[in-house]
Fold this sequence. Notes:
single chain; about 210 residues; mainly alpha; Arc Repressor Mutant, subunit A; Tetracycline Repressor, domain 2; 2 domains; elongated
Amino acid sequence: MGIEERKEREKEQRRQQIIDAAEKVFAAKGFSGATVENIAEEAELSPATLYLYFKNKDALYASLNLKILKVLTEKIENVYHQNGLNPEEKIKALEKALYEVYEQDPLNVINVLRFQSSEEPKNLSPELATQIKDGARKYLRAIAGIFEDGVREGSFLDRHPVAFADIVWGLFAGLVLWEHTKKGFDPSKDFLRPTLGLAIEIINRGIKKN
């Protein structure tokens, strides 16, 4: 391995070290409560080193959101484009996809949900802000598309597909944040999976036309 290649690999490892630390700090303290010093301490680095990789706390927070938004969009779009499933089966598959995203990176999912609610950083570059908004639109559009196909086929009630997407996402977001709260009472239990499954089952029954 050459010197340049080794340096690049070490740089990427250090960047991932910072991202891993930031996930934990943001999940524990929220965006407003977290500081660069908190993140640097968790990463066992100096604040000056952290600034070599990220312009500010806002840019670091945004990078975490972009990471999970990409995974989320890919998972949901894969469900939407599964030709072998009817719309009702896709709703069930959507439940599995959402849970898998949470299971893969629960801390970052919580950060995304907090970002979308009331803690949006104010110092993002226009480019980063646009990327995040576009990412959110993509997964909501895919959820809406599943419902829209069901309406078109006559399986689902004729209602606005975007409203359906908002309901599903709002339900998922609420359950994840509540799960995070309940973990404080009993960290060993998985409250999300059975509750999410029941909620999607109720939605699936409620939107059927007949």
